[in-house]
Amino acid sequence: MSVIPALEADVLRRQDPELADILLGELDRQSTTLQLIAAENFTSPAVLAALGSALANKYAEGYPGARHHGGCEMADVAEHLAVQRAKDLFGAEHANVQSHSGSSAVLAAYAALLRPGDTVLALGLPYGGHLTHGSPANFSGRWFDFVGYGVDAETGLIDHLQVRTLAHAHRPKAIVCGSIAYPRHLDYAFFRTVADEVGAYLIADAAHPIGLVAGGAAPSPVPYADIVCATTHKVLRGPRGGMILCGGELAGRVDRAVFPFTQGGAQMHTIAAKAVAFAEAAAPAFAAYAHQVVANARVLAARLAAEGLNVTTGGTDTHLITADPAPLGVDGRTARGRLAAAGIVLDCCALPHADARGLRLGTAAVTTQGMGQGEMEWIAVLFGKVLRGEIDGARAREEVREFTGGFPPYSRTPAETG
Ligand SMILES: *Cc1c(COP(=O)(O)O)cnc(C)c1O
């Protein structure tokens, strides 16, 4: 195994066998269960190598050429490369690759454009808005006056009429589009038009679909939004982290909103790993991957519907599926528990216009493992059996272990992957 020799053979295992066992246990968990959490993926060995590199030791407050620390020659080159690759990949005039996470990127976007107390229009949390879109438990709900739009009760699609009506009634300083659970493409041109009608900034929180955008499998928000926030670890398959894209005129404000306003020293090992991931995402193989992710999600959604689950919006355009298992006689939490016992790992989520919790899942990780439509059908059939109680949990767990054994996430050597 290319990623693990340090664990198995030498340093960590000899010095700290207790922790080495924990890491190997996690690798075993990831390798023998099905990772259907919509926000997760398997980074390449090259990305992991950059994360474990000497840049992890480097302090680099500031930006290339303007650091508060000495010895940043290599850090500067690494960040330059990451920024250039991000700009090229997404056709953006400016990229900031320092955000520690998707939430930090959103915080910086608000800091760049808003003042405390400003009104912001975003998808309400019951309909798939993120915590940073106005949750009272989050800085966003505490410091800004959020108004929530929703989805149509029948179709599950974003209620464009309501977006426009609320925008004209509340005159927000910014409109946010983006979601943790919405399975369809967003109409960025529509949001741009409404933002222009009321003089609002448009912030696209593309944390989920940005990897599909990179692979040409989803529309890009870059031509429409004033600021695009994203993560690098979801479909994009890079290290855990955030990223901000914007036009040249907002570049200075965005950079100052990240550092020094909301963050300290950049995590240079993560930025190096982001550069590696951007290069991977620019390759033709990644476009094929992104399209396969969507093809797999479409098949999985259709097969889950055939098993009796109520799939929100009737399907998906992306990697993401939300579904209500109630027609099979189980609520979301019970379903998640049963599936977990079988080694099928996914999340619960809010269901629009319902008190019950639903299921949220995605195909980014299983597609990285090399699974295709046939495997999605296999997963959906087992899903149905587990939820209907037609198979014993322990037996299902064994079937999943055997099945995933054919798709090890980290089996190939770098020579073979290259
Ligand atoms: C995942 C996500 C985030 C937050 O990303 P973190 O890295 O977990 O902070 C923000 N917004 C949306 C829409 C997301 O899906």
UniProtKB/TrEMBL annotation:
<dbReference type="InterPro" id="IPR001085">
    <property type="entry name" value="Ser_HO-MeTrfase"/>
</dbReference>
<comment type="similarity">
    <text>Belongs to the SHMT family.</text>
</comment>
<dbReference type="InterPro" id="IPR015424">
    <property type="entry name" value="PyrdxlP-dep_Trfase"/>
</dbReference>
<keyword id="KW-0963">Cytoplasm</keyword>
<feature type="domain" description="Serine hydroxymethyltransferase-like">
    <location>
        <begin position="13"/>
        <end position="380"/>
    </location>
</feature>
<feature type="binding site">
    <location>
        <position position="125"/>
    </location>
    <ligand>
        <name>(6S)-5,6,7,8-tetrahydrofolate</name>
    </ligand>
</feature>
<comment type="pathway">
    <text>Amino-acid biosynthesis; glycine biosynthesis; glycine from L-serine: step 1/1.</text>
</comment>
<keyword id="KW-0554">One-carbon metabolism</keyword>
<keyword id="KW-0808">Transferase</keyword>
<dbReference type="Pfam" id="PF00464">
    <property type="entry name" value="SHMT"/>
</dbReference>
<comment type="subunit">
    <text>Homodimer.</text>
</comment>
<feature type="binding site">
    <location>
        <begin position="129"/>
        <end position="131"/>
    </location>
    <ligand>
        <name>(6S)-5,6,7,8-tetrahydrofolate</name>
    </ligand>
</feature>
<comment type="function">
    <text>Catalyzes the reversible interconversion of serine and glycine with tetrahydrofolate (THF) serving as the one-carbon carrier. This reaction serves as the major source of one-carbon groups required for the biosynthesis of purines, thymidylate, methionine, and other important biomolecules. Also exhibits THF-independent aldolase activity toward beta-hydroxyamino acids, producing glycine and aldehydes, via a retro-aldol mechanism.</text>
</comment>
<dbReference type="GO" id="GO:0004372">
    <property type="term" value="F:glycine hydroxymethyltransferase activity"/>
</dbReference>
<comment type="pathway">
    <text>One-carbon metabolism; tetrahydrofolate interconversion.</text>
</comment>
<dbReference type="InterPro" id="IPR049943">
    <property type="entry name" value="Ser_HO-MeTrfase-like"/>
</dbReference>
<feature type="modified residue" description="N6-(pyridoxal phosphate)lysine">
    <location>
        <position position="234"/>
    </location>
</feature>
<keyword id="KW-0663">Pyridoxal phosphate</keyword>
<dbReference type="InterPro" id="IPR015421">
    <property type="entry name" value="PyrdxlP-dep_Trfase_major"/>
</dbReference>
<feature type="binding site">
    <location>
        <position position="249"/>
    </location>
    <ligand>
        <name>(6S)-5,6,7,8-tetrahydrofolate</name>
    </ligand>
</feature>
<dbReference type="InterPro" id="IPR039429">
    <property type="entry name" value="SHMT-like_dom"/>
</dbReference>
<feature type="site" description="Plays an important role in substrate specificity">
    <location>
        <position position="233"/>
    </location>
</feature>
<dbReference type="InterPro" id="IPR015422">
    <property type="entry name" value="PyrdxlP-dep_Trfase_small"/>
</dbReference>
<protein>
    <recommendedName>
        <fullName>Serine hydroxymethyltransferase</fullName>
        <ecNumber>2.1.2.1</ecNumber>
    </recommendedName>
</protein>
<keyword id="KW-0028">Amino-acid biosynthesis</keyword>
